[in-house]
Amino acid sequence: SDEKEYTESVKKVFNRRAEGYDTTDRWSEFHKAHADILISNSSIEAGHTVLDLMCGTGMAARRAAKLCRKVCGLDLSPKMILAARKATHEEGLTTARFEVCDVSSLTVDFLEKKGLPTKFDRILCVSALAYLIDPAGAIRRWAKFLSPGGKLCISGFGEEFDIRSHCINLAAEVCNIPQKYPNEATGDTHKCAMLLEQAGLCVSRVVWEEQLQLPESYTAKHLNSTFDKILKHPITMRWAGSLSDPEVAKLRSAFQKISEKKETEGKGKIMNNRKAVFFVGEAIATAASTEEGEKKHGEAAGSGYKVKKGHTVDGFARVSSGSTFESLASYSRAVVVGKQVHVSGTTGYDYSRMIIDPSAVVQAEQCFVNIAEALSIAGSHIDRVFRIRVHLASIDDFEAIAPVVGKWMKHALPANTTVVSQLVAPEMKIEIEVTATMP
Fold it and tell me: Rounded to two decimals, what is the model's pTM?
């Protein structure tokens, strides 16, 4: 089948790259930095059991093995697994184990036959999601292997991250050739949050990292010389493999024009400086949770809603994000009343670290990440919002943040009021409150 052929082509690519992947591969330093950031966003503790999916040479798994009691790494490529085992032995790590597995179809049966755990406190996937045919389906499958309170921690890229693949996809659009962007599933904050929510996970964190860059910039001539290589890459071949010679020639011409335009825009350079994304989803305990789960995540609501650090008063389920503002002023991030969820005015703070970006656009994105998390914990969904109120510190930011609101609300189409208000701190540029229905 086409799916089997694709899987074999990916396996061949990584079998070929396994030797020297950690040292001489042009991506090695990039992948190490990527693994470091994902681990730092994973909150791994000494007693945790960790599963690293599409682990490659185990860059993340080996880092995790220095922090916790047990790590399992799975990858499609036998040579990558051999490299991971060798590196683990050389580093003297005794808590990590690696096995060959197509993780897109991971099963309990496979884990049991290998004598591996079937539940994990942390599941990791570092910069590999683009290689999956069905990323959303894979994440739904992986979420089932989380222990109560466990976290699925993933890194990915924006749609424009690799300028080469981005240009060839732009060229395909110009030529009216059906195609799919390799990083489409993780293209923006909303998409990342939706991947987690659709897997039944609470959105714990979505962090964009602007410092990670691909190894080089390009000239148009250099970029054009990579066309054939990009075209033959397994991800591109999923849509370009059946193109006729005239179609390939047309695609090449469009690619060249796009690269020349970008070179002009970049004053002689075409830069690979796109954002990477790190996002974390948490399996929240419910009213039927074990005593241990309830102790860890807070008393569950009597209604059976998913509640993190929440409690009930007169049947109202209350949700807290852990924000210091909530503790200071004695309020809840969200309150469930009957079939409605009322979410408090929410700013652009990353409440897990209590930091805020100076950009109004970034703050708007973070507002919706926070709101989506609160709704998910309460048992609702961002697409069930029917009322939204947006408070802006300055009217000058309206045009910049309107597309962000539009992106997150395009399925809900709620009633909307947008006003200019004096917010409680000078760094705050936007505050959003919503009301949503329960399923």
Answer: 0.69
